[in-house]
Amino acid sequence: MSDTNELVRLVKPRALPAGTMEVETNEAERAALAKRFGITAIHALTAKVDFSEKDDAVVASGTFSATLEQPCAVTRDDFTYDISEDFSLRFVPAGRLGEYEEDAEFELTEEDLDEIEYEGETFDLGEAIAQELGLAIDPYREGPDADAMREEAGIESDEDRKPSGPLAEALAALKKD
């Protein structure tokens, strides 16, 4: 977890919220997260989370939605777009993560990939949502004017470019047969 904790929402595993927990962010939290992730702004960020328990872990399943503003990877002009992602996280008490031998080969299951260890009486759902948001941000996202700028500069997109070279010629010859 991050040391910055721009979005703190502590949850007590022994007293899980009944029903769906709604996470609303304020302007200061969104500004701090935008700075952390290197984007222009986060205009909105909300999440809806349901909790359950399984094998001494708390499972938090939900969806977050955000309105982001960031520079286009091609034009560098800011543009705004919406994202919405589902997530499922397992919060496990300290010392209960799977133990693996240092040199042993092992395979991670889908559940292993989203396990978050916590210490004490609470875990920080807010930081977990912030990390999920960070994973969803595409630093190379292109804005609406990207294609026009490429065309103006005479740059072909990968889709428009025709393969060339000996391998491409050999493949073309095989297609004709």
UniProtKB/TrEMBL annotation:
Pfam families: YceD
Renumbered residue ranges of the record's region Disordered: 140-167
Compositional bias ranges of the Basic and acidic residues kind: 140-163
Origin superkingdom: Bacteria
InterPro entries hit by this protein: YceD
Protein name as annotated: DUF177 domain-containing protein
Lineage, highest ranks first: Bacteria, Pseudomonadati, Pseudomonadota, Alphaproteobacteria, Sphingomonadales
